[in-house]
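Materials and Methods. Structural model of Alkaline shock response membrane anchor protein AmaP. The 200-residue sequence of Alkaline shock response membrane anchor protein AmaP from Kitasatospora herbaricolor was retrieved and submitted for structure prediction as follows.
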Amino acid sequence: MKNRSALNRTLLALAGLALLGTGLLVLTGGLDLYRRLDIAPPDGWPYTTPGDVLLTDAQRTRWTGDDWWWPTAIAALAVMLVLALWWLYAQLRQRHPGGLPVGSPPVAGVRLNDHALAQALTEDCSHIPGVKDADAHLTGSAGSPRARITLTLAPHTSPRAVSDALRGGPLRRASRTTGRHDLSTRAVLRVASHRPHRAD
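The predicted structure was written out as tokens:
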């Protein structure tokens, strides 16, 4: 999820910068600011006076008479459309399981909010000996939820002991609560940074 959010922010930032740059270029030329402010634009700089156009007739019709032009243009537009629809589908696709059934068999009319379960997992994991910080998230669907747990360990803590305590404690209780014995879990263990001890 974090990777997807970072990708979205990067793409939106690049698109915003491109649109902002193009808009400033057109606005500067359209208002004739180069002449009014006595600024000399670089050689070959486009759209420097109100009479300039972004694309001349010759530029717009340069390849239209060639056999390859229209198939290439249509294929490029089709690829752009497919990529845009794929991105839209990825944004609209549900990223959280939402309400989870409780119990085995599930109790009718009772649903457990995925955020509440994630908070409970975070709190439960933070009480494991040797864990300085915990963070839990649920992804996937209600029928196939997945847990992602990040634990920051105190220096000199045994990762195996923490992993065993995680399986025997928080994950077992979460499985019992949801009635799932196959809760897919990915645990990331990190060690908190610490200053080296000086040996005398």
